[in-house]
Model the fold of this input.
Amino acid sequence: MIGDTRQVQHDHHPLLSSALVWFRRDLRADDHAALSHALQAARQVWCAFVFDRAILDGLPRADRRVEFIRDSLVDLDAQLRSLGLAHGVAGVGLIVRHGDVQALLPALAVQLGVQAVYANHDDEPNALSRDAQVRGRLAEAGIALHCGKDHVVFERSELLTATGSPYSVFTPYKNAWLRKITPETVKPWPVARHASALAAVPAPAPVPTLAEIGFEPTNLHQLKLPTGSTGAHELLDDFLDRIDDYGQTRDFPAVKGPSYLSTHLRFGTVSIRKLAREAWQRMQAGSRGAEVWLSELIWRDFYHQILHHHPRVASHCFKPAYDAIKWEQGPHADALFSAWCEGRTGYPLVDAAMLQIAQTGYMHNRLRMVVASFLTKDLGLDWRRGEAYFATHLNDFDLAANNGGWQWAASTGCDAQPYFRIFNPVAQSERFDAAGRFIRRYLPQLAGLPDKQIHAPWLARPIELAAAGLVLGRDYPEPVVAHDVARTRTLARYAVVKAG
Ligand SMILES: Cc1cc2nc3c(=O)[nH]c(=O)nc-3n(C[C@H](O)[C@H](O)[C@H](O)COP(=O)(O)OP(=O)(O)OC[C@H]3O[C@@H](n4cnc5c(N)ncnc54)[C@H](O)[C@@H]3O)c2cc1C
Done:
């Protein structure tokens, strides 16, 4: 195993004749831990990615993430090729396979005759069991699997409390994180300087098309989400011009405030060290926006270490007492869930947000909190239903962050919102989309309402509805629940926790 420290370097005397780098959620060729290690350890290095049928079979045939990955692999392939060429090696590229990864990856390693496979940690429970199986099969062939940190700044048990236990409260975690960061911990892993070890692909083939792996095109290219490392750097450059304002702009969904880098972070088309470095340097130079943004990157590390230490959160409440909560069930609950998914709750901000995720695969962070709170505390539905819906629809779906976000909103998580703090969806709308710009983008049928009435159309006077050409119940639904009633019911529902 590659350790967590920076001491593992094989700079001058490669020990192995050949190695394979197995790319997974790290689709870039710069500042890449496993690639850097392999290039320093071996005289010949190949790079591979496997489209895992076990994952792909569970997805709809049109899935933006599959298209994002596929396009990013084309970018990665091109980067590897030019890295090779810059070091006098022609024919370098990415080997792409499609099928059962547990069988295909070891078979490829055997076919290439490598002595070791290098990969970066993936701490999701399914990925860990996949890696354990691949490790076993490689071992049978006498091939080692070396895995190490790449995806986060501090992983697993790198940050523990004074008593040696994992953190479950964010602020002390963040303080410890900020104490531990040094230029060394966010230094890029060198790739280009060792790239002469890249080897030509024995049987070069282009990255398979979407159709070849059984998928259909989506609207990905109509979205403002450029793919691959090239796309990540475009987004980053754009964001760095705005980062100083992030603290003021991040909460308003109609404003271009956040970085929109989450899908790139998810698939590793940008290095977390690069982002942390950029933010940390600006923060030290006095940028408040950069400081707030760095905090968000720390939340990401925080939730990853929570999932690592408490894998049970994938299906249970972080706080066990909350498993006693009785969520609404039955046909009425199912109908409410459909209304939520389809943007038909009658609460414009909630509905506009749900249309945003359906049409683009993205949802603004403020809106994720609003719709998650609405599902659990206005509709009384189990947070796992919403979590699963997000998991299918978000381009940036990440088990650790999604689970953390849902459990935060449902008050079942570590360091969560207290259960008696219940977002009022109308007040949230008035505060964060005051002029209704975001709502109008997704719900044009409400466009004619005055700004003041757009947050709660059922409170508009008949004359205002008529002037807007709007008939409630025909053009836009009446609210599916009354917030005040739901609030009382929620407080009673959560009372089992106090009683327990
Ligand atoms: C219910 C719910 C579900 C969520 N599901 C996901 C998910 O599946 N994947 C995901 O990446 N984020 C998730 N988030 C966190 C957050 O909403 C998104 O990361 C953010 O909206 C992505 O947009 P951005 O890249 O423009 O963010 P920015 O505001 O630019 O933030 C920069 C990066 O910091 C990280 N980040 C920001 N906020 C959080 C957070 N609260 N927790 C963990 N990491 C964070 C992300 O990697 C993000 O790209 C969820 C939040 C909630 C409340």
User: Anything to note?
Assistant: The pocket of flavin-adenine dinucleotide is lined by residues 250, 258-262, 265-266, 296-297, 299-300, 303, 365, 368-369, 372, 390, 394, 396-398, 401-402, 404-406, 409 (CB under 6 Å). The longest helix spans residues 64-86.
